[in-house]
Amino acid sequence: MNLPGPLFVVGSLLAAAAGLQILRRLTLIVAWASATVAGAIAVFVTIVPLDQTVDLGPISVTLGAPLSILGRVVVIEPVDRLPLTLIALIASVLFLVAWRLLPRSNFFAAGLAILALLSGALMVEQVVYAALLVEIAALLAIFPLAEPIVDEQGNRYSGGARGGLQYMVYTTLALPGLMITQLLLEQFTVFPNDLGLLQTATILLAFSFALLLGAVPFQSWMSAVAMDGSPPMVTFLFTVNLGAVWFLLLAYLETYSWLSAQAAFGQLFTLVGLIMMVAGGTLAATQDRLGRIVGYATLVDNGAMFVALGSRHVTGLSLSIMMLIARPLSLGLMALGLDGLRRLGQGDDRAETLAGTAWQVPWRTLAFVMGGISMAGFPLSLAFAARWGLYRLLAGANLFQAVLALLSSAGVMMGLINIMRLLLTPSRTMVEVGATDEGSPDGPRVRREDPVVLAMILALLVGTIVLGLFPQLVSGIAFQMAEEFTFLSQ
Amino acid sequence: MNPFLHWLDRFSDFVSLPAAWGIFVAGAVIYLISEWRIRFLALLVQYLFVGVLFTRIFDTRPEMALMKIIVGWLISGALLLSAQIRGRTVREPGRLVSWATNLPFRVLVLLTATAIGWLASQRFSLPYVSAELGLACLLLVVLALLFFGTEEEDPTIIGVGVLNLLSALEIFYTAQDPGLLVSGLLVVVSLLVGLATSYLTVAEVPA
After folding, report:
1. Which residue range(s) make up the domain with A173?
2. What digits encode the pLDDT tens for the residues A304-322?
3. Mean of the pLDDT values across residues A378-394?
4. Residues of chain A contacting B192 with CB distance shorter than 8 Å
5. A136, A147, A164: residue with CB nearest B192
6. Tell me: the pLDDT tens digits for B134-156?
7. Residue A273, pLDDT score
8. What is the distance between the alpha carbons of residues B158 and A166, in angstroms, rounded to a whole number?
9. Is residue A48 in some structural domain?
10. CB neighbours (10 Å) of residue B88?
11. Which residues of A fall within a CB distance of 8 Å from B169?
12. Cβ of B201 and A161 within 8 Å?
């Protein structure tokens, strides 16, 4: 039996998700199996030529063959391969990160299903179906996002309704704009002189993507999600889901080249991006809650990606893709750190509550701080290389904008320094929760760290630093991905 | 045309304007009364009226309208169960009719929003749909925004707001493109919103 590529990719991910949901209590098996399936899909999509049929035992797969569902075509184009690979690889890594953090969670099965739907959204040709698949993926994400997570003592330290609710509302508000755009574009093919249709479609698309990507003033869902959700799920949402939405935006700009050809395109993207960066940086600088720092740092990062895209140059696009590649490393580290610190604070992640805890969980604190430094775009990290490239690109056109972008990144760093100061300062009300080393007469001492978590922290730290020292390992891939899109000047 | 379909077409043509206002009145009941048994009944009625409007769109396939009603009722049942579980932990069972907090403010906001919705439907006719369907879409969007704006602490009502928004979108979009695939995916989205809302409603309830 010969299967078209889209059916194989989406079908195998969904089948694995269904099977793993049944086995979800066996965390070790489920985590490794989901990571293996996502990783295998990433490798398969990367190495198999689109026009070649590959035998996989009882079935054969032609990756580039189109799948037709009730007359609608789903196909893997050459431009889709790297985005598909990227989101599958990120998901694979995050499943491993979540192994020790989310026991018996539905994150793994839901994550695979979300990956399947987002892959479908990237492959489908019509806007309306892509929008519906993204919406369904977002709704599925709510279940692991709001899932209550308890520590060894049975204390709940993560999971709440508010983040999930806000995410549901904002993604659903984005749906009408994307769907109606399809109607308007179909009308435009019938009435090509009616430019009003194009203007309305542009406004609706911009509004919808602003909602989906958390552009100011629609950013509140990002901090709510970061506050309520379990750190691995939040990382998944900010990397895999937002990454897919980014590639969808690029696919729209590629398909409807008149969008990017409009004179205001570059200025609009730059302005929106700078507003996001300034707002995110300012809010991050004044935060005392660790979860919110994650949300606002991501807002600044999203803003930087908008600014890079606003340059209307392939270099800008490759920089924004570099930021997207750097994000899982940074957020993965922050997730590992935040999980440990929240656990210690029994769900309360205010810096005052966690004062002095850096001495109890030094590795988790280091992970959070290093991840934060990377998210802020400071050395040594891959994000630094990307941000530095962005500042240089901006400075060539407008020095003031470059300084504004740099100061916004510094805002995240200020918030982080403030939190680090508090975490390092011993407090009279120092929390004494969990399994500290027994027999300590001097109060809380260094907690024994899970060796697997420690290994993950070290691996991500090494990855961040190595890619920070040698960004050319990634920049080539980012440039290759950017070159696939022809709507920008070379 | 099949005599039944012919009769159904004439019936839905006759009742589509009252159905549009019926949707709004049911939404207003949900907005003003906080007792979930009454809200549940209002939601059932609202989905019945939405189904009636769908017979205008799927005039040769009334089973699609019936499916919309059944899905809506399923979601309503799930929301009622979740709201009851949450209600047991939040407060004691109260009177049959308990008005929502800030009732005068809500009435004022509702009247203002109704006026805006109605005036908008008179001034800007939505493309692709008849006047009654356009009015229903605008009123559903107004209700959704009211629920989002004033009930942010209650997951169930926010979920009802999301469902109202989706109903408006379904009416507007499927009037232009009544394809099976889009309709089916929108039904999946509605069901998932119902499930997610139920989950979020009970997520913070202590075990």
Report:
1. 126-483
2. 999 998 888 888 999 999 9
3. 91
4. 136, 139-140
5. A136
6. 889 999 999 999 998 876 678 89
7. 92
8. 9
9. no
10. 11
11. 175-176, 179
12. yes
ipTM: 0.90
CB contact under 8 A, B179 and A70: yes
Note whether residue A454 is domain-resident.
Answer: yes
- Lookup: tokens for A228: 């309520």
Q: Where are the domains of chain B?
A: 3-203
Test B197 with A168 for CB contact under 8 angstroms: yes
In a domain, A16, yes or no: no
CA gap A409, A298 in Å, rounded: 11
| Chain A positions touching chain B (beta carbons under 8 Å) | 69-70, 72, 128-129, 132-133, 135-136, 139-140, 142-143, 146-148, 159-161, 164-165, 168-169, 172-173, 175-176, 179-180, 183
Stretch A415-434: mean pLDDT, rounded?
Answer: 74
Number of domains in chain A: 1
**Contact status, residue A116 vs residue A17, Cβ threshold 8 Å:** yes
Counted across chains A and B, CB pairs separated by less than 8 A come out at 83
* Segment A350-359, tens digit of pLDDT: 888 888 888 8
pTM: 0.91
Residue B191 touches chain A, beta carbons under 8 Å: no
- Our CA-based measurement puts residue B7 at a distance from the nearest CA of chain A, in whole angstroms, of 31
